[in-house]
Amino acid sequence: MNARLTRSADLPAVSRDAEIAIFEIRSLGETTRFAILNRAQLDMTHQFVEQLESIEAFRGRLTDEILDALKERALTEFTERMNRASKSDLEFAKADILKLKQ
To answer: Measured over all CA atoms, what is the biggest interatomic distance in the chain, rounded to whole angstroms?
Structure first.
């Protein structure tokens, strides 16, 4: 009887420890996600600037209207990529996270 009471008293502590572990894993996951997202957005921004510079290299050989259209298309594509990247999200269920700790 005493052993059962001791085990049942340990359940809240185990549950609390599991919740803390889940919180730590999710926090680390969010930190990693934001670092990856920031790096990807910075890389995409560099690519966008390089693309604009490449378009500008055609100045004098193409009309201003064509250059503006190319820049507008580049901006639209850049914006769409940034939006897609910022919406990417991973979420794991508690059961899956608990399996990682085993």
So the answer is: 91
> Which residues, including other chains, have CB under 8 Å from residue 88's CB and lie 6 or more apart?
37
Q: What is the pTM of this model?
A: 0.62
As for how many domains the chain has, the answer is 1
Range of the domain at 11: 2-101
Sites in the chain below the pLDDT cut of 50: 102
Amino acid at 52: L
State the Cα angle at 96 between 25 and 12, rounded to 5°: 70
Distance, CA of 85 to CA of 69 (rounded, Å): 24
Tokens of 48: 């966008």
